[in-house]
Design a protein that fits this description.
It is built from nine helices and no strands. The protein has 262 residues and is mostly helical.
């Protein structure tokens, strides 16, 4: 009986904490959108964050998609060869990368790397009372800290996903040429003929939602950090886990929604 009582209490506290954090993040999201279009515009900080968030992640994202494109080409070649459909490898790989693998894997790479950095940076500012100092000087922490990172992510992540799509398709082309005997020109022409603009657009639309959620989760956890360096570590870990869960859950609902239009 005591076990059931303790279990119900833990579940209740967990649900209450989740609802509290969800409400706080929605409030932070609303404030971020409102302050995004109000002066002054922190353009210097936005460009600085683009360099940090986007350029710092480009190498690992491109390598990930290149390897994924090669693996997908090999796997689809084996599967389609059973039904005499090896010629469709290029189209299937292109669709998989443009609609799912490109945006999702790019967001996972950026989410794991960037969200932890944002949470650690803002968490350190929170425990050293720098965020309180910003308020004391008459500035809005959301405008000063969250908005530039949000704008940078909205620019960097879709651009990174676009490059990753191209590299992923080239990875599939490379392995198809070396292992499957397909001509590179034929592979590319089949890919271009088989995919449509809507396939690219639906994938890029997802990155805006992923990017918004990643920054929102990271900034929320970072700005609410307490407990010194231990609290910073806990906030960083929680941010990475929450960001990855958000990406995968949002991907399902976005895919279901976008299939209606595409």
């Amino acid at each position: 009986m005591r076990f059931l009582i303790r279990l119900s209490q833990r579940i209740g506290h967990g649900v209450a904490d989740f609802l509290e954090n969800f409400g706080a993040m929605m409030r932070l999201g609303g404030q971020t959108i409102a302050h995004s279009f109000s002066r002054p515009f922190e353009l210097h900080e936005v460009f600085k964050q683009i360099e940090h968030l986007g350029l710092g992640s480009i190498s690992i994202a491109l390598m990930t998609l290149f390897a994924t494109g090669m693996v997908m080409a090999l796997q689809f070649a084996v599967g389609l060869d059973r039904f005499g459909g090896r010629d469709y490898v290029s189209v299937v790989v292109g669709l998989a990368i443009l609609r799912e693998l490109g945006p999702v894997l790019s967001s996972v790479v950026v989410g794991g790397r960037v969200s932890s950095g944002i949470a650690a940076e803002l968490g350190s500012m929170a425990v050293t009372e720098q965020i309180d100092a910003i308020r004391a000087l008459g500035n809005n922490p959301v405008k000063k800290l969250v908005v530039p990172r949000m704008w940078a992510m909205m620019i960097a992540l879709p651009s990174l996903a676009l490059f990753a799509d191209i590299v992923g398709i080239l990875g599939g082309m490379a392995i198809s040429s070396l292992e499957l005997g397909l001509r590179p020109t034929t592979y590319l022409s089949d890919t271009i003929d088989g995919v449509q603009l809507i396939d690219l657009v639906t994938g890029l639309v997802k990155t805006y939602v992923f990017g918004f959620g990643i920054v929102l989760i990271a900034c929320h956890n970072g700005m609410r950090t307490y407990g010194g360096t231990e609290g910073v570590g806990q906030a960083t870990t929680k941010t990475v886990v929450a960001s990855l869960i958000f990406i995968f859950l949002a991907d399902f609902f976005l895919t279901r929604l976008l299939l209606v239009f595409g």
